Amino acid sequence: MTELLDFLQQYQVGDFIEGTVIQHQQFGVFLDLNVPPILGLVRIVSFKNQGPMSPELLPRIGTKVRGIITDFYANDHQVNISLKPIDFEKFRRKRGGF
Fold first, then answer.
1. Cα distances (angstroms) measured from residue 66 to each of 2, 7, 20, 40, 75
2. What is the DSSP string of 29-42?
3. Are 24 and 61 within 8 A, CB to CB?
4. CB 83 within 8 Å of CB 18
5. CA dist 84 → 40, 57, 66 (Å)
6. What are the angstrom distances between the C-alpha of 89 and each of 17, 93, 95?
7. 59 pLDDT higher than 80
8. How far lies 26's CA from each of 2, 43, 45, 66, in Å?
């Protein structure tokens, strides 16, 4: 629980975060954020602005990816992350730039 509280004090929605792909699922990929037991999740719908997403387009296991935090699920120790350029722009505008 301490790790989760520390994480929530350090990061907020709209922050960039980097993680390593550790698992593929039908609904997206899980990321190791180097803060056990917290995992990042990039859902299939959070990869591209538009168009279909196929398994060949998913980053390979072991690949580092950088995305933006869109929300937290504290009960699941999970952080939702988006790689969509449109979300980067949305949060940049909300904050007045990065």
1. 24, 17, 9, 11, 23
2. EEEEEEETTEEEEE
3. yes
4. no
5. 15, 13, 11
6. 15, 6, 10
7. yes
8. 31, 9, 11, 20
Amino acid 95: pLDDT: 65
24 membership: H or E segment, kind and range: strand 16-25
Q: How far is CA 93 from CA 11, 59, 81, 86, 90, in A?
A: 18, 27, 18, 11, 5
CA distances from 90 to 33, 82, 83, 95 (A): 23, 11, 12, 9
Rounded CA separation 46/70 (Å): 10
How far apart (Å, rounded) are the C-alpha atoms in residues 57 and 89?
22
- Residue 33 predicted with pLDDT over 90: yes
pLDDT higher than 90, residue 37: no
Structure tokens at 25: 């699922």
* 8 Å CB contact between 29 and 58: yes
